[in-house]
Design goal:
With 178 residues, this protein is an alpha+beta fold. The protein is 20% helix and 37% strand. Strand 11 and strand 12 form a beta hairpin. Pfam families: Ribosomal_L6.
Length: 178
């Protein structure tokens, strides 16, 4: 049995979870999220706990068991606390500026790069080299942060570019003279 999948999910006060067949809806103080559960997995609501079960021990059922439990748990954390991911801009002349809800990057290109956040994502600028991506959906927050990082990845020689907060960039030695 999956060690993660068999753990019950505690539903905190202020959060309502509703199960309608394969559709799980989680509503909390920060918003509402829904998840469509894959077919062999069953989700039940008992007392103040959500239980995820699987009907058999086939490979597909086993792999989806822990995944489904983790996705529902992530939704509950998202509607209560939310998720955030920090980004740092490193490089001479590289900066970020807040323009309403969107942000504008100066990353050494011949033009500024404007990023519009998708629905449910908030971009906040701290200083001119730090950016915080936050929202209630863990996957969406991570994807937006990854797409912003992809604009100018940290390069290995000087370390210039957009990196996650706390990310360590492996540096290479440059050309050596004779």
């Amino acid at each position: 049995m999956s060690r993660i999948g068999r753990l019950p999910i505690e539903v905190p006060a202020g959060v309502t979870v509703s199960v309608d067949g394969q559709l799980v809806s989680v509503k909390g103080p920060k918003g509402e999220l829904t998840l469509t559960v894959a077919k062999p997995i069953e989700v039940k609501l008992e007392d103040a706990q959500v239980l995820v079960t699987r009907p058999d021990d086939e490979r597909a059922s086993r792999s989806l068991h822990g995944l489904t439990r983790t996705l529902i748990h992530n939704q509950i954390i998202g509607v209560t606390q939310g998720y955030s991911k920090g980004l740092e801009i490193v490089g001479t002349g590289y900066r970020v500026v807040q323009k309403g809800t969107s942000v504008e990057f100066a990353l050494g290109f011949s033009h500024p790069v404007l990023i519009e956040p998708p629905a449910g994502i908030v971009l906040t600028v701290e200083g001119n080299t730090k950016l915080m991506v936050s929202g209630i959906d863990k996957q969406a927050v991570g994807e937006v942060a990854a797409n912003i990082r992809k604009i100018r990845k940290p390069e290995p020689y000087k370390g210039k570019g957009v990196r996650y907060a706390g990310e360590i960039v492996r540096r290479k030695a440059g050309k050596s003279g004779k």
